[in-house]
């Protein structure tokens, strides 16, 4: 039975397979690193076929291999699963099934019988008529409601590199090339704090799971921790990288931080001691993105060398290396909320969804432009704004910025572009999403120095509110703003199921 799109990304992670020792005579595949996961025969077979089938193919230039989104629609992008799940059609089919009156009905039929009630014909002496059963009630199909812009936040003096919702959703943090970090109130857009201390532009920020501490990475080669309630910096800095810091992430427990830098290394830090626990010689080019899996046991990293690597947090061993045949530089990477997939942004205007257990790219999303800047995005769900859609019928989307100033939302399974919104004047560098207590929000930032908050509502769009420096002054507030004190996004939106795979992929 096919899985729904919500199971694709928000089901709990299955237990990791036991590791096996690598045979000394084993020859690693071109598409995977000599690691413990690659030792399994489950991964060797498909890799072997991929190698042999490509021996006689002449390599073309990177320019001809890249697909233009203008010439190739999203549904034609290459992947290994190019069909949608059956639940996508289930609701429509059931609605179109209308029972009709039986042609065996006689004129003397009682008037109390509705035309929608099937009338059984009398059974013939030789033929037995099976009893009729009532039609099942129609299934409420997940429906995508577009995001509309609600607020424009201004205050940064240079381009805004990253923006993040806090785990509780009550605050938004933004960082900029002006070397500052700003904290905003989600519901009103009010400016709460300006965090100053970095000596150069800030490229990355991340909230701790407790909703209080914010970590920032800068071109001054330091990682700093901030108390977002008091608006002050903690005294200790995390020093160890010898070049710009591009990406950081907190572990689920908040006791570790992973960082990626222009010095091509990945560092794992102990937050309490502010010292590096481990340095991973990860890549041969600057590291663009890092992330923790939801249980903290794995780390993913990506770099300009076109490689995506999966690391064991406890041992620092590389368990898997993913590389696409185009070998485009990978600028950002993110684990799916269920931990079974990795979403990667590459500088060939593609966003790819990887099944890292099998080492395969299972989906490719196109329709945006990304050839120069390091863009990032987020996952989300749709179809349950009014609580009318069953849990298993919710669908998942992926959102990303574009160098054309747009934000693009894709359905994760079908790859259809759900929404394309002109958002900023210039490149959209970061997008983040939040869903809590029926409130669905998105936030974006870009080179135009602004942060924009987007809301998905079921009623008619309300007039946009006027923007002011350092946030919003006056105007209305978000509906349901008092319901923001729930659990984190991943906890709220997780779907309980036995298996969660893309279109039935094991």
**Percent of residues in beta strands:** 35-45%
Radius of gyration: 26 Å
Q: What portion of residues is helical?
A: under 10%
> What is the SS-derived class?
mainly beta
Low-pLDDT runs: 1-6, 14-127, 471-506
Biggest sheet strand order reads 26-27-28-1-29
Would you count the extended β strands for me? 29
Number of helices: 5
Mean pLDDT: 74
**CA-to-CA gap between the ends?**
12 Å
Question: Biggest β-sheet, characterized?
Answer: 5 strands, mixed
**What is the general shape?**
globular
Task: Detail the topology: elements first, then pairings.
Blueprint (H helix, E strand, L loop, with lengths): L4 H6 L30 H13 L8 H4 L21 H10 L50 E8 L5 E6 L5 E6 L3 E6 L5 E6 L5 E6 L5 E6 L3 E6 L4 E8 L5 E6 L5 E6 L4 E5 L4 E6 L6 E6 L5 E6 L3 E6 L5 E6 L6 E6 L6 E5 L3 E6 L4 E6 L11 E6 L12 E7 L4 E6 L5 E6 L5 E9 L2 E8 L3 E7 L11 E2 L19 H5 L13
Parallel strand pairs: 1-29
Antiparallel strand pairs: 1-28, 2-3, 3-4, 4-5, 6-7, 7-8, 8-9, 10-11, 11-12, 12-13, 14-15, 15-16, 16-17, 18-19, 19-20, 20-21, 22-23, 23-24, 24-25, 26-27, 27-28
